[in-house]
Amino acid sequence: MTSFDRELEKQLKDREFEKQIKEAGNRLLNTPSSIDDLLTLLDKVENLLAYVEQEPSKSMRDALLPSMKALITNKLLRHVEMDVKVSLVSCIIEILRITALDSPYKDEQMKEIFQLIVAAFENMSHVSTRSYKKVVPILDTIAKVKLCLVMLDLNCDALVVEMFQSFIKIIRSNYPPTVLLAKETIMNLVIDECEDISFDLLSSIFASVRKENHNVVEIGGANNY
């Protein structure tokens, strides 16, 4: 096979891949009424997005548009099922990874997305659940692309404190080292930006740490009786 043939084959594969992404996004715009069908479709979108590299071509960016639009519709953002919300966050995180934090979403939309992300973190108590398996790679991606710093840029102080409270509880639990490392990385990234963080936010963060320490001591003391 000549270099020309290989390049042609690659282009054909790329076009087919872009077609699959566009079709999946268009299907998502017509949100399935069945929860199972919706979860299956979100899984497919997430799996496709995971193969898209950062700084995609113009044709790939065009192929991503239906998914980008579908993922921020009120029907999905405000879905009542937690599994749907977590799967939705998984897809959005991939979009943000692909766009290298040059978010295609408006600030208010990003704030709503962060609310979903923090809510997902608070639903990691059961390791065997679908949500837990989704949240682990979400954590890893947020740590790698430093998405947590966008929360500071958007002045999501209350959400940052809520996220820290959730992390502190889980850091004290028996979770895999990869999960704990991702959480610690995110917390360190936020704290390292302390020069740009308001005193009120820092006070709230440290107050949440002290409160959690107090709760742990009380639980430990009760268990000794």
Q: Short summary of the structure?
A:
With 225 residues, this protein is an all-alpha fold. It is built from 11 helices and no strands. 75% of the residues lie in helices and 0% in strands.
Molecular structure report:
InterPro entries: Pds5. This is Sister chromatid cohesion protein pds5. It is found in: Nucleus. Keywords: DNA damage, DNA repair, Nucleus. It comes from Quercus suber. With 225 residues, this protein is mainly alpha-helical. It has one domain (3-223): Alpha Horseshoe (Leucine-rich Repeat Variant), CATH 1.25.10. Helix content is 75%, strand content 0%. It has 11 helices and no strands. The protein has helices at residues 3-29, 35-49, 58-70, 74-77, 82-98, 107-121, 130-145, 148-153, 157-171, 177-192, 199-223. α1 packs antiparallel against α2 and α2 packs parallel to α5. It is globular and about 60 Å long.
